[in-house]
Amino acid sequence: MAFPEKTLQSEVVYDGPIFRIRKDKVAVVGGKTSYRDILEHNGGAVILAVKEDGRILMVRQFRKALEREVLELPAGKIDGDEDPMDTALRELKEETGYQAGSIRHLTTISPSCGYTTELLYIYLCKDLTPGETHFDDTEDLDLYEYTADELVDRIMKGEIQDAKTIVGVLFARTAGEI
């Protein structure tokens, strides 16, 4: 069994609008101590929105951390104590203009458990009704539609590298949902 690290001391070193970072002093194996930098994040919802014809809605946006555009499933952060399903429905409407007649939780992932508390809740949305987008003031997205086969092909060729998109598409494909 892995040694459970006990927190001896914890200090918030950054408190921003999207996340905060704390530095924890922990007891580690062998009676030693070490430090862990932990990024606290409220989590987010990821939307695998499937149209009547089977095409899946995707967004392309510039991601500053990577200094390039990324093709990904629509997603957004959970606000406060918002239910992740409500986040998914809100983000679907904001980023694509669509509303879902049905929504179902597929899976939850921890995108990087080595340093962040973030959890991403992945939802399958169907019975879509089109409408108008409502981007956040700082968002600039382009909407695309792909078949499941096209997305799997792009993933396998390394053209899609976004983890939440890879997990969402391949999970749904393996589960027989797309």
Structural class from helices and strands? alpha+beta
Largest beta sheet, briefly? 4 strands, mixed
Number of strands: 10
Low-confidence regions: none
Strand order within the widest beta sheet? 7-4-9-8
Beta-strand proportion? 35-45%
Report how far apart the termini are.
38 Å
Helix content: 10-25%
Overall body shape: elongated
Kindly provide the radius of gyration, computed on alpha-carbon positions and rounded to a whole number of angstroms.
18 Å
Global mean pLDDT? 95
Q: Determine the number of helices (DSSP H or I, runs of at least 4 residues).
A: 3
Would you list the SSEs in sequence order as H and E?
Answer: EEEEEEEHEEEHH
Brief digest:
With 178 residues, this protein is an alpha+beta fold.
Detailed description of the structure:
The protein is an alpha+beta fold. It is built from three helices and ten strands; from the N terminus they run βββββββαβββαα. Strands 7-4-9-8 form a four-stranded mixed beta sheet, with helices on both faces. It has a three-stranded antiparallel beta sheet with strand order 1-2-3, with no helix packed on it. Helix 2 crosses helix 3. The longest helix has 13 residues. The mean pLDDT is 95.
Q: What features would you highlight for this structure?
A:
single chain; alpha+beta; 4-stranded mixed β-sheet; 10 strands; 19% helix; elongated
Ordered list of secondary-structure elements with their pairings:
Elements: E1 6-15, E2 19-28, E3 32-41, E4 44-49, E5 56-63, E6 68-72, E7 75-77, H1 84-96, E8 99-109, E9 120-129, E10 142-146, H2 148-156, H3 163-174
Parallel strand pairs: 4-9
Antiparallel strand pairs: 1-2, 2-3, 4-7, 5-6, 5-10, 8-9
Helix pairs in contact: 2-3
